[in-house]
Amino acid sequence: GKAIELILSDSIEHGPWPVSRLKSLDFLPVLGVSNIKLTPLLPLQKLFDLFDGDKGPMDLTVIYSYDGASSYSGHISSASFDSRDISFRSSEILFHLRLGTFGDTQAFFKIPRLELTNGGTYISITDMKLDSQSKNAETVFPVGDGIFAIGELSIRSPGSFVLIRDVRSKAVISETFGVLSMSNALEVFQIKVNGEEVGGFELSLSAKNLRAKELESLTDLFKKLESSSGYEKTLIENSIKGFVYALLEERPSVALDKFAYKSEYGNSSISLVVDLQKPSAYINNSQAWASAIASIKLEASTSRSMLYSIAASMSKEGKDYSDMPNKIIGYVV
What is the Cα–Cα distance from 132 to 106, expressed in whole angstroms? Predict the structure, then answer.
């Protein structure tokens, strides 16, 4: 294909106090600042025409610190595109990335609004953002935390309309002396379908006391297992059993910390925790696997109003459910 030439204009300011930072009252000394912009050229004029304003499609500011860290901040201008079947709208996108001296990173982006129309389907997303940070650790797993959120997601097509509000997901991975703990939580405040309230839900999962080295080895072995066969496959399977046995020595636990559903009729929730241990014998049969389970705890609860609504919807006789308990809680240990 034909090559397209890109020209970037770069305004470099040397430290310790670049003028652009002094103007914003930022007096922290830095090694230098680079302000990068994409220069419009005739082959790219159609691309530039998609973006609003006179800033161009994107600008990027790079800050170099004396300690070796660097940060990248900028924006992608608001844009619009229209064709016969597809139209697209995007507000200004903000982003930031910081690379620390010792392998730590920070990342952030925010999109206030996105709109897409394809035929008869219209999709709108507002207040979408990602905020994450991680640090260097002696493991291939990203140790840190991240939050992803959407203010509102709406999907409209002929005969149907779905509205989802306040979606928030948070993931955390922590490491202490080579042992990992992981958690992931998802919350959706409200879901509506064709104007009818469906409700919202919360989902939380976690795992604790996971040896990082054993987990890394198991991850690699399972990848190799997919493409192995014969004697090599048997060797890999035996290695997997050995690493699983070593992993269980730390007495890990996995949990469905919470799955909760809430609506105008009430709420209900369930949780499950499974504690594991080193099995009584080498893992070579189902009985040995069963002995690796130290304990199981299951808890479920539901409100009286939800029980009443379920019973009322199932009953055709109009029975009186006024003597139902306010809440039913069950445990299995």
Answer: 6
Cα separation, 8 vs 296, whole angstroms: 60
- Alpha helices in the chain, H assignment, sequence order: 19-23, 45-49, 212-226, 230-248, 286-290, 304-314
* Rounded alpha-carbon distances, angstroms, from residue 77 to 50, 55, 276, 287: 9, 7, 51, 61
DSSP string covering 298-333, please? EEEEEEHHHHHHHHHHH-SS----TT--SEEEEEE-
Task: Kindly give, in sequence order, each residue whose CB lies less than 8 Å from that of residue 249, ignoring residues fewer than 6 positions away.
Answer: 211, 278
| Cα separations in angstroms, 111 against 116, 231, 238 | 14, 52, 48
Cα 205 to Cα 325: distance, rounded to the nearest angstrom: 29
Q: How far apart are CA 37 and CA 61, in angstroms?
A: 9
> What mean pLDDT comes out for the span 131-149?
86
Residue of 91, 89, 93, 92 whose CA lies nearest to 116: 89
Q: What is the dihedral of CA 89, 91, 92, 98, to 10 degrees?
A: -100
What is the structure's pLDDT at 229?
84
Q: In the numeric block, which tokens belong to residue 100?
A: 């620390």
CB 202 within 8 A of CB 271: no
First vs last Cα of the chain: how many Å apart? 66
One DSSP character per residue, 269-285 reads EEEEEEEE---SS-S-S
- List the Cα angle 83/84/88 in 5-degree steps: 40
The angle subtended at Cα 232 by Cα 226 and Cα 235, nearest 5°, is 100
Rounded CA gap, 213 and 141, in Å?
Answer: 10
Q: Which two tokens stand for residue 211?
A: 């040896």
pLDDT per residue over 154-201, tens digit each? 999 988 999 999 999 999 999 888 899 999 999 999 999 998 888 999
Q: CA-to-CA distance for 292 and 294, rounded, in angstroms?
A: 6
